[in-house]
Amino acid sequence: MSESADSRSKTLNFNVGVLGHVDSGKTSLARALSSTASTAAFDKNPQSRERGITLDLGFSSFTVDLPDHLRNGGGQQPYDSLQFTLVDCPGHASLIRTIIGGAQIIDLMMLVVDVVKGVQTQTAECLLIGELTCPRMVVVLNKIDLLPPNKRQNAIEKMTKKMHKTLESTRFKECPVIAVAAKPGGPEAPDTEEPQGVPELIQLLKKQSYFPQRDPGGDLLMAVDHCFSIRGQGTVMTGTILQGSLAINDTVEIPALKVTKKIKSVQMFRKPVSGAMQGDRVGVCVTQFDPKLLERGVVCTPGSLRTLYAAVISVRKIGYFKGSLATRAKFHITVGHETVMARVSFFGLPPVGSSEPPSDTKSPAPLPRSLDKPFSFDREYVYQDEYVVGLGEANSGSDPEQWVLLEFERPVTCPSLCLVIGSKLDTDIHANACRLAFQGRLLQGFEDKNYAETALPRLRIYKNKQKEGQVERVTDDYTVIGRNLFKKETNLQLFVGLNVMLSTGESGVIEGGFGQSGKFKIRVQEGLRPETKQLFTCTSKKKGKGGSKGGPASDEEPKGDSQPVGIHLHFKRYVFDPHKKMVQS
């Protein structure tokens, strides 16, 4: 395989994600557009054939002359043709993870909408995923052959207006909308009928193309979607390079299986090449590897991926998700190319003294850079029972900065700083509800299986605690006995030395227990005020008669109420502190 074979013609690869609601005609559209079908393409999956639904990321491609606006090379080496790789993403939501898996390398999204039905639940979910991952979009109104010819133009214009209205508040505002019939007569019709509007769509795609940001540097990460053996050659893994590059004779790792293999040959759409880089769709041949072990997964530079048992991510709720995001709840977490259940714990910045600049976020937002929050083990964070909505800086209405700890049910292998999406995939597919709940970026991963003991204690998330009790009696000017602050079985030693405040204004320190029933002694350093002592003399007279709810009102009582004198104890406790220490600032 010589270098000259490689350089005879230079093709720019451009990945177009074909997304849409189930049965909107995505696969027929990809088929109508395509000339070369790669191995994974067109519903090869037997389960998919039975259901007539794309079950895995199908890939196919077609090549066109390089459009004029790309001819000057954009500072890149000159290309002479443009290859559109169509990534046909599943439309039914049990496979949201497959879409997110493919979305990382999609340069342009083609949202296919059934012109008769309009936007459906999954269309909206596809839109959201597009917003999180993709800079540009084209809307294709498919199945125009189903509209009566005399009303067709009118119906198309109406639906185009509707689509523009739907997209108004998204990053795809004013994106082009085009009408086609990818498979006139439906999937069962003979192939004799020509698709309608497809040449115009190809022209539109050419117009929308640009030089994607491709970086051959850094570690290799390739998403493999098919694996099969060729007799006498070895095992071919086909997939898309998400980052880095590869070349013949490179050693790569299959992290899920903890094995490394040497690359024997590389193909791009059936043409041998010596190497490939980020964004390219390739077949890589290795030897002595059983294809059954890896139907899909990732291949990477040896040692570059991490296997995590838990992670901290920045988090932003997805506006269309109707449920609450509660700490200790479980969500499906899609990270890298895996989806796994995880328990979530939300935390944020302490309420006052936060000198952070306001974060610039809009809903539901492409993943904003501000989501890569500066997370640090040196900072203190406050525990949250749930995700906090809309009390951002200066009451701007944006959500405040917050993070979530994810504790995975099984370890996941992923690159650092990757996109993370949390969803409720167990919600009914047919329910008209968005199942994507939150998004974020992986900021800190825990690779130790015993992370709860070794790493989490470094995570300084605290809960504010308060306890209320009453003064039972005074023993001298500097000492009072309190009750009802602790249960009988509480280990009072843990609280010795903590400061308390009396409702009359004095501050004191807990000195220790008193008797066996949870009562305790408080030392009041400054001494009790005369008016407080007066209260207690009144109160204890009443007590003698068995009254326990405070004494009669006295002229010297500050607020004129007959409540006993309260004891307030405030402290914070770090959620992951193994010693459960109480801390007072």
Automatic annotation (TrEMBL):
<keyword id="KW-0648">Protein biosynthesis</keyword>
<keyword id="KW-0963">Cytoplasm</keyword>
<keyword id="KW-0488">Methylation</keyword>
<dbReference type="Pfam" id="PF21131">
    <property type="entry name" value="eEFSec_4th"/>
</dbReference>
<keyword id="KW-0342">GTP-binding</keyword>
<dbReference type="InterPro" id="IPR049394">
    <property type="entry name" value="eEFSec_C"/>
</dbReference>
<dbReference type="Pfam" id="PF21208">
    <property type="entry name" value="euk_SelB_III"/>
</dbReference>
<dbReference type="InterPro" id="IPR005225">
    <property type="entry name" value="Small_GTP-bd"/>
</dbReference>
<dbReference type="InterPro" id="IPR009000">
    <property type="entry name" value="Transl_B-barrel_sf"/>
</dbReference>
<protein>
    <recommendedName>
        <fullName>Selenocysteine-specific elongation factor</fullName>
    </recommendedName>
</protein>
<dbReference type="GO" id="GO:0005737">
    <property type="term" value="C:cytoplasm"/>
</dbReference>
<dbReference type="Pfam" id="PF03144">
    <property type="entry name" value="GTP_EFTU_D2"/>
</dbReference>
<keyword id="KW-0547">Nucleotide-binding</keyword>
<keyword id="KW-0539">Nucleus</keyword>
<keyword id="KW-0597">Phosphoprotein</keyword>
<dbReference type="GO" id="GO:0003924">
    <property type="term" value="F:GTPase activity"/>
</dbReference>
<dbReference type="GO" id="GO:0005525">
    <property type="term" value="F:GTP binding"/>
</dbReference>
<dbReference type="InterPro" id="IPR027417">
    <property type="entry name" value="P-loop_NTPase"/>
</dbReference>
<dbReference type="InterPro" id="IPR000795">
    <property type="entry name" value="T_Tr_GTP-bd_dom"/>
</dbReference>
<dbReference type="InterPro" id="IPR049393">
    <property type="entry name" value="eEFSec_III"/>
</dbReference>
<keyword id="KW-0378">Hydrolase</keyword>
<dbReference type="Pfam" id="PF00009">
    <property type="entry name" value="GTP_EFTU"/>
</dbReference>
<feature type="domain" description="Tr-type G">
    <location>
        <begin position="11"/>
        <end position="213"/>
    </location>
</feature>
<dbReference type="InterPro" id="IPR050055">
    <property type="entry name" value="EF-Tu_GTPase"/>
</dbReference>
<dbReference type="GO" id="GO:0005634">
    <property type="term" value="C:nucleus"/>
</dbReference>
<feature type="region of interest" description="Disordered">
    <location>
        <begin position="539"/>
        <end position="566"/>
    </location>
</feature>
<comment type="function">
    <text>Translation factor required for the incorporation of the rare amino acid selenocysteine encoded by UGA codons. Replaces the eRF1-eRF3-GTP ternary complex for the insertion of selenocysteine directed by the UGA codon. Insertion of selenocysteine at UGA codons is mediated by SECISBP2 and EEFSEC: SECISBP2 (1) specifically binds the SECIS sequence once the 80S ribosome encounters an in-frame UGA codon and (2) contacts the RPS27A/eS31 of the 40S ribosome before ribosome stalling.</text>
</comment>
<dbReference type="InterPro" id="IPR004161">
    <property type="entry name" value="EFTu-like_2"/>
</dbReference>
<dbReference type="GO" id="GO:0001514">
    <property type="term" value="P:selenocysteine incorporation"/>
</dbReference>
<dbReference type="GO" id="GO:0003746">
    <property type="term" value="F:translation elongation factor activity"/>
</dbReference>
